[in-house]
Design brief:
The structure holds 2 protein chains of 2 kinds. Helix content of chain A is 79%, strand content 0%. Chain A is mainly alpha-helical. In chain A, helix 4 (63-76) packs parallel to helix 14 (248-265) and helix 5 (79-88) runs antiparallel to helix 12 (217-225). The chains are: A mainly alpha, B mainly alpha.
Amino acid sequence: MSIEWITILMFGGMILLLLLGLPLAFVTGLIGVVFTLGLYGPAGLPLIASRIYTFMNEYALVAVPMFILMASIMERCGVAKDLFSAMRVWAGGLPGGLAIQTMVVATIMGAMTGIIGGEIVLLGLLALPQMLRLGYDKKLAIGTICAGGSLGTMIPPSIVLIIYGLTVNVSIGDLFIANIVPALMLSVVYMSYIFVRCQLNPKLGPVAPAEERNIGTLAKLALLRGLALPLLVISAVLGTIYFGIASVTEAAAMGVVGTLIASAVRRELSWAIVRDSIRQTMQTCGMLLWLSFGATAMIGVYNLAGGPTFIRELFAGLDLPALGIIFLMMAILFALGCIMDWVGICLLTMPIFVPIARDLGYDPVWFGVLFCLNMQLSYLTPPFGPAAFYLKGVAPPEVSLNDIFSAMWPFLILQASVLSMVVLFPQVALWLPRLGG
Amino acid sequence: MTEHTTVTRAVHAAGNVASYLFLCIVAISAFEVLMRYAVGQPTVWVHELSIAFAATCFVIGGPYVQATRSHITISYAYDKMPPGLQVWARLLCSLLTLAFLVFLTYATTLQGWQALQYGETTGTALNWPIPAYLKTLFAVCAAIMTAQTAMHVIEDARRIARRMVADPGR
């Protein structure tokens, strides 16, 4: 069978099985197995097993459960709630102030967690009812939460970046650092958007009644106190990675220790919280890792069949300038993001795309930032937009899935423009890691 | 249905026990950092043991999630299907999953059996038989998932049968 047909059949089969409702892990795994059998016979099967075994033996992968555990514990403590109420009183008389504060909270939480589901759920429970109560425009409020809640993947520690780093063999520490500026840029762009819209039309984001706002400065400062420890944990984890004191995995484990201490100091730590957190970590890891196992099997066969060379020649044959190829890759990632989750996309496409980008003279760290930004988009786009589903689960019943998806558009456009900016000006991502050495 | 719930319960119990390994990783990593910076004597075993602990959880996580059939699915098209079609799609998915898992079990059993026979070790300073252990565990978990999925197939087929009995017109 020619590689053209293999590519078409694999991709077509994948979409068909996905739509049938077969779990993603088994879609890619099954395609991997079937093509191995078809091309190499039963003797090829042990290759799949050994590829998966090699994948799970990466030390950096241990950081994934550590960050998930850290996030699970934080979610179960009152940190997010405190953060939100501390920020709320600072909103003052600014139209749209509450939405902007929500974005600040989302950004800080993104640095504490790194997985999006929990963050959107928390914001949906805390911030959405408050904004709706004040009479905020429904779409603006929803868009703020979904876009802000998805920032967790961009802001280090990010599990997306860990998997990317493992897949293409680049330093996860560098990736974390390179993502800081684009992530903050995204957050600032969101905030400016909310600010401008509410300045033009203050009805979109009404101000809280005066009695809620008139809190003494001392009381405001007292509210901030509860945040000191969690913020310390974040800076300790990121600082450790940035200055190369410990590996990403060790920093993540120390982050768990810090979170445990912080919640103990806040008198929230209980055995039930720890037990539920490790069980949730087990569940999340089971999903995430088996997804990776399936994708590893599929891309393994495709590699053996000569897929990467085929795709490279395909790109070369297009006669596009280097930047054109990068934009084309982004378009492909975006399209895949509408129907697949990021783990699958990362493991399936990055082993092919990154070498091409590298040959064109681009930095794989920079490409990782682009990938991460692109996956931000994929969280928000229908039909497979996890952000919308997470929010739907906790939003008041009058908020429909259609409301949620139609609220995303302005934020998608903002994301796409930040993405284009990082494509055109790689320095945005690269100056910080280069500064560190 | 009793045989199903027994397996589900056993898998969950095993997963819940294994989840304590995450805390073990935290503890030994903290110990490593402490030894390196406070005592100046980095350990040789933390690195390998963390990988072994994490990989154990990753592998057991498969049947753990499969017990509740909650591996990530894109249900966009499935949700739009009429219920009559949904039951068939579900059965087909279970059968396809079963096919994949049968082959995975075959592949991992071969791998595990080889590693076990030679007592494959890490080949590092410690030279612990971690690969022999992990590869065997991988095969066992793949086999458990196959059994779970076989039960899902029966469950789904029964659902279709029940629908047909309730409404022979379909």
